[in-house]
Amino acid sequence: MKENIRFVMLAAGRGSRLENITDNHPKCMTEIGDKSLIKSQLEVIKNFSNQVAVVTGYLAHVLEDHLSGDNINFFHSNNWQQSNMVSSLLCAQSWFKDSTVIVCYTDILYSKDAIEKLIATKGDIVIPYYTKWKELWSNRFTNPLDDLESFKITADQNLIEIGKKASSLQDIEGQFMGIMKFTAQGWNQCIDLLNKLDNKEIAKLDSTKLLNRLIIEEQPIKTIAINDFWLEIDSKNDYALYKDIVLS
């Protein structure tokens, strides 16, 4: 039985580091295995909810056609080229009303188990983190520290730092997966924070910067460890590594 929960999928970006691969479609339509990233995610998500919204931007009409049979609610970011993840999220603000919402990047792949664990974890703001990040980043980068950001948690799984430049591997206790869960109260905490910022500040905010600001405001953020399957497709190198992967 499906939970009473909604999903927002952030799909406004082109994915410039994929270069010519995304000339004719948004980043989330890049095919890994035999399906687009976003279609593979929807196969997981539909196990939990039929209430799914997608925030579009680059080549929105192409993505809307791609998802035309999937019963999706669309929101559009007119300013996708000059803004970041949080601005895209605010385009779907009405979707959060009185609901628990899971927000997902759309350049990632993850398992059904990851979403099950996330839903089962109590907290107004909860994020899953990937435990096998070292092996994954070693395959993707010559020096993983060139790309990795800090991720620190307490013994009881509360997030205390995220998104800063990591000076050593000791700064990294996990990898942010591009997935966040907000209860209605948790989302209200985000809005209270964002109301203190001007539009230029909000346009520069990505998800990890938002989470770090919430930590500074002493808003508790729970985490849950995921150790089975997760991928991020952010560059041509990632695409070459994973394009032929067989997804179950």
Largest sheet: 8 strands, mixed
Q: Count up the helices.
A: 9
Helix fraction bin: 25-40%
Computed CA radius of gyration, to the nearest angstrom: 17 Å
CATH superfamily descriptor: Spore Coat Polysaccharide Biosynthesis Protein SpsA, Chain A
Shape: globular
Structural domain tally? 1
Please mark out the parts with pLDDT under 50 across 5 or more consecutive residues, or reply none: none
Which CATH top level class fits?
A: Alpha Beta
Strand percentage lies at 15-25%
The end-to-end distance, rounded to whole angstroms, is 22 Å
List the helices and strands and how they pair.
Blueprint: E1 6-11, E2 31-32, E3 35-36, H1 37-45, E4 52-56, H2 60-66, E5 73-76, H3 85-91, E6 101-105, E7 108-110, H4 112-120, E8 125-130, H5 133-140, E9 149-153, E10 159-165, E11 175-176, E12 179-182, H6 184-194, H7 199-203, H8 207-216, E13 222-226, E14 230-232, H9 236-242
Parallel strand pairs: 1-4, 1-6, 4-5, 8-13
Antiparallel strand pairs: 2-3, 6-12, 7-14, 8-11, 8-12, 9-10
Can you describe this structure?
The protein is α/β, with parallel strands linked by helices and 248 residues long. It has one domain: Spore Coat Polysaccharide Biosynthesis Protein SpsA, Chain A (Alpha-Beta Complex), CATH 3.90.550.10. It has nine helices and 14 strands. It has helices at residues 37-45, 60-66, 85-91, 112-120, 133-140, 184-194, 199-203, 207-216, 236-242, and strands spanning 6-11, 31-32, 35-36, 52-56, 73-76, 101-105, 108-110, 125-130, 149-153, 159-165, 175-176, 179-182, 222-226, 230-232. The strands form four sheets. Strands 1, 4, 5, 6, 8, 11, 12 and 13 form an eight-stranded mixed sheet that branches. A hairpin with a 2-residue loop joins strand 2 and strand 3 (35-36). 40% of the residues are buried.
